[in-house]
Amino acid sequence: MRKLTYYVACTLDGFIGDPHGDASSMFQFVDEEYAAFMNTEYPDTIPAPFRESVGLADVPNKRFDTVIQGLGSYRLALDAGITSPYAHLREIVATRSLTESPDPNVELVAGDLVARVRELKAEDSSLGIWLCGGAQVAGQLVDEIDELVIKAYPQVYGSGMPMFGAGFGIHDFALEDVRSFSNGVVVRTYTRKR
Predict the structure, then answer these.
(1) Do residues 30 and 184 touch, judged by C-beta distance below 8 A?
(2) Are 191 and 149 in contact (CB under 8 A)?
(3) pLDDT at res. 179
(4) Partners of residue 128 on adjacent β-strands
């Protein structure tokens, strides 16, 4: 069974974006040391338009072969004129408002997202599924998440878009790894307790 990994950047107080979803204040922390970690350990998560500039154009996928995101996350690429931001992965966008895919590599899911994720998890592949965001999609899939990789940036927003846009529920995870960087970023990896 393949695993679903929520690999996400957030503030110290657990927000993945400001009240409008903007997380650009976090970009200042992508320095040489931290970028080298992301490019080495999570190269699949680097958007296709940037892979060549960081030397990853021909690097095979290491952890994931599929990415799932909501329309809000996908809209950032569309607004930049990019219809397949992760062309090296199978892209799935959860949306009810976008009715026709702008790219043959992008599958739109308007119906039961949990059922679609269960189908993906049952596929025969050595690579996993990356949940890119956003909050509402993470909230829908919280019971399906097998691993959390939380990139905590040394900022506090006070309010904004939470990691999970869901009602109250307790979901236990076990800490597997912690990696800290000189810029103050801490990457924590958790696995689901089942």
Answers:
(1) no
(2) no
(3) 98
(4) 64
Tens digit of pLDDT for each residue in 64-91?
999 999 999 999 999 999 999 999 999 9
Report helix, strand or coil for 25: helix
- What is the reported pLDDT for 171? 94
SS3 breakdown of the chain: % helix, strand, coil, rounded to 5?
25, 30, 45
Distance from CA of residue 181 to its chain's centroid? 20
Q: What angle is formed at CA 1 by the lines to CA 15 and CA 91, rounded to 5 degrees?
A: 55
CA proximity to 186, closest of 163, 164, 162, 155: 155
Report residues of the chain scoring pLDDT below 50. none
36: left (phi over 0), alpha (psi -120 to 50) or beta: alpha
Q: Which amino acid is present at 21?
A: G
- Angle 165-147-175 from CA coordinates, rounded to 5°: 105
161 in Cβ contact with 15 (< 8 Å): yes
- Residue 133 tokens read as 């965001």
CA 38 to chain centre: 13
Q: Which of 101, 91, 94, 39 is nearest to 67 (CA)?
A: 91
> What pairing do the DSSP bridges indicate for beta strands 147-153 and 128-133?
unpaired
